[in-house]
Batch of 3 targets.
Target 1
Amino acid sequence: LSKYLNKPIAVHCHNDFGLATANTLAAYEAGATALSVSVNGLGERCGNAALEEVALALYCLYGVELDLDFKKLIKLSDKVAEITGLKPWPLKPVVGSHAFTHESGIHVAAVFENPFTYEPYSPRLLGIDRSIKFGKHSGTKAIIRALKNFGIELSVEEARKVLEEVKRLERVRGCLDLDDVKEIALKVRSGR
């Protein structure tokens, strides 16, 4: 249409099939210049294209420079959630509380080697850090690598002992964070 019309094209997509962001980006590719979005994708029925998803996709995938401070997106999302009482799903892209959380041993080890293996953009773009959790899916390589970043060098055998304790504790209280694992590692090292 943009080739035949000498007018700006706007798009306003609903998320009934989970495609609002994809359809908005397709419209952008086809020449739409006014993209209707909403924070957290809020809108009638199943919602609309999410501001945070469309903005990140335009910036990261299409190289579009936006007059937007990405570091404020999570605070904006949280404020909208507070006002509306509609908290984003934890696995929601960009603003979900688990968007940059890794637990699986393979994922954690890979993220330490090359973050882009599992993160299409850096959490630093949003002003946050990734979250590493340890539990039933963790492996010794991830434990060794995570602790090495904090100056704690473990042998494979020590890492196995740490992993056994991590898995035991995870069954009781859920996934552990890095501070918990550091504490376990120090106990293993001291023979306690």
Target 2
Amino acid sequence: MIPHHWIAHHRDEDGELLGYLRPVGDGFEPVTVFGHALAEPSDEDDAAAVLDAVGLSYLADRWLLTVPDRAEPIAVQVVEADADTVRVKNVGYESGLDRHFTLPVPTDRLQPER
């Protein structure tokens, strides 16, 4: 579950949740709806600007999921995300692995595919 002290950031035009501002020291770190950092901590306005600029585009990106008992992560895509869980699908079609994974948020098991 997203910690209560994180600040939800919504798009002005339609109120859509874009992510959160995670308090870090004297600044704020912009994070996705599932808790992945999008940039280094900065002041609140700059962190909010990162979320505004990125929008929800990260939901369409491919991510790498760390899977227990597997040396290499697998390629996944976000199917849905909320304050409690993020659900991803296996787009690498790795045999012997589940097609979908549901993770508690925030999670450190997802990294952007680069």
Target 3
Amino acid sequence: MMSQPTPSDQLSTATPAESGRWLAIETSGLFGSVAAGVVTDAGCELAAARPLPRDARSARTLAPAIQSLLSELGWAPSELAAVAIAVGPGSFTGLRVGVTTAKTLAWAAGAAAIGVDTLDALAEATGPPQEPTGRLWTLLDAQRGEMFVADFDAVEGAWERHRGTWRATTETLKAELRPGDRVVGPPAAAFGGEPIEPTAGAVLQVAWRRWRDGAADSVFALAPQYHRLSAAEEKLVIK
């Protein structure tokens, strides 16, 4: 199992090169994946992607999948310029494993670490908006009868987030939807939408745009974004 770096270790100050090899990890749900891409002045080109076994949310399955993907491309982990990771919302276990793995790889390679909101990755996975279009809603299961929700407007051929992540019940969200809106994500079938999953390839593209716009994360500050307490924590609050 990979050990997580600590602040007492030497902090890497590396940032992605103008051209470099990137790795992306998505472990927020049941269907995780890993992807690799090459960044040039022209953009980010997907080099390879690989799904993880269903519900494979442990370092024992994630690490070999990453190693296999990099070996397929002839890349060494030390050659990575950046590691992108979906930071949530999503599965508590999956996010912890994914973020810890991404931080360890980035620290060891002296690479940049770039966190991506899983709901943003879902929007990316739908492709660019086709005009005319309504609002895009991305959904993830929040358990206990709720969903994590983000909504996006079509702006100049891209999806622009309307507001931050919020939680909704089925009834609450149905009241928000308007004709022409598009709903995607694992719970979307309840709204006549598309039950697609976030992918590492989508995480890669969102991360590249974050870097292009000057955003990157400290390896040690990067953390899962759960957007809610765990069941055990909620029980403690109630007590």
